[in-house]
From TrEMBL, chains A, B:
Keyword terms of this UniProt record: Flavoprotein, FMN
GO MF terms held by the record: FMN binding; oxidoreductase activity, acting on the CH-NH group of donors, NAD or NADP as acceptor
Taxonomic source organism: Alteromonas genovensis
PANTHER family per UniProt: FLAVIN REDUCTASE LIKE DOMAIN-CONTAINING PROTEIN, FLAVOPROTEIN OXYGENASE
Necessary cofactors: FMN
Name of this chain's protein: Flavin oxidoreductase
Similarity comment: Belongs to the flavoredoxin family.
């Protein structure tokens, strides 16, 4: 049974209730930790707004809210120009969520939640050692959207993952690596593969890989 | 064991291999069918680039590639200003993937893959009857990004879902509604909830909901 909610219905909801509902509508989202630094304090923030922009050059986008707990991360990105994205693991999703608490600016979320920063020799922003997939990015484009959120697009500089999780066609099996997903604002999920499908052609039965 | 790939390594990969890999890096993605019309033919395209922009006003974004099979959808959106987003269900993910085949412009993917269009009395774009969550949107902002992809942001006009899947705080249980997720370009997944976590506070143990 399907019910309808009009725009008026949505506008009349209590603010927190509406935030939960609208955040559920976009479907399952990537669970990622954003690693930044101001040169002294290493900052970590869970985000669920990462979106693929392109493969060549390799670009990832994300939506940031400047007037929230994400402000320190955004300031660091503006100051340094570099940041990392690290997959949240199903085994420690609670630690990822805990980074959303409002810590002081000079307090590191790494220490507060019990995750370990590591630095590669060529990159200034902190990675999360416990993540199975680490991505180092340099800001490529940064602008405001109509509701005063900000979109940051980064160009991938380097990536870390276990190569034995790579399929022969380049697909990285992030399910085998226990990457988590998010729905709504606070629900974390593991996954179970239904299938990989071959390139689809008109009037030809779809094959699985 | 974690291996590193530098930007040079990524740039030297074969094109399709790189597309599979980079598309895997963004983590789990929303599996959604984009419904549009030119007034005659109802168009359906699977997309995995939906991103939450804001709850008040309710805004969803998506990244579109104008020089691919998505061109017809994009033309319809430009012409009409309205479109729908419909959650892909784990029970018919194959039909969703089949919409990515290169059908003729005057051929409806609804007919081709066996899904059913429905129209609400106040909205011009087609919804997918088999989806458990249907969202009607009006274009609010549309612009090009640095790699010539296009970002379309839509304002939600109406939503359809079963209200018994709503939690008391507004969270919509899209796992109970069998919403699928995507990793890479062609892998479809069901989900299993790990936990919902309460609002996180510094130095207070995280509680589950």
């Amino acid at each position: 049974m399907t019910d309808r909610m009009t725009r008026d219905d949505l506008d009349n909801l209590e603010q927190r209730y509406r935030a939960n509902l609208i955040n559920s509508l976009s479907g399952f989202k990537s669970a990622v930790l954003l690693g930044t630094t101001d040169g002294k304090t290493n900052n970590l923030a869970v985000i669920s707004s990462v979106v693929h922009i392109g493969a060549n050059p390799p670009l990832l986008g994300m939506i940031m809210r400047p007037h929230t707990v994400q402000r320190d991360s955004l300031d660091n990105i503006k100051q340094q120009g570099f940041y990392t994205l690290n997959h949240v693991n199903t085994q420690w999703a609670d630690k990822a969520h805990q980074t959303s608490a409002r810590y002081e600016q000079d307090e590191s979320e790494f220490d507060a939640v019990g995750l370990t920063p590591f630095f590669s020799d060529t990159f200034s922003a902190p990675y999360v050692k416990e993540s199975e997939v680490n991505i180092g990015l340099k800001v490529a484009q940064h602008f405001s959207l109509l509701n005063n959120t900000e979109m940051v697009i980064g160009e991938i500089q380097e990536v870390f993952f276990a190569k034995d999780a790579l399929d022969k066609d380049g697909y990285l099996d992030i399910e085998a690596l226990n990457t988590a997903s998010i729905s709504g604002l606070d629900s974390y999920h593991s996954s179970k593969r239904l299938a990989r499908y071959a390139y689809a052609k008109p009037n030809v039965p779809l094959e699985t890989k």
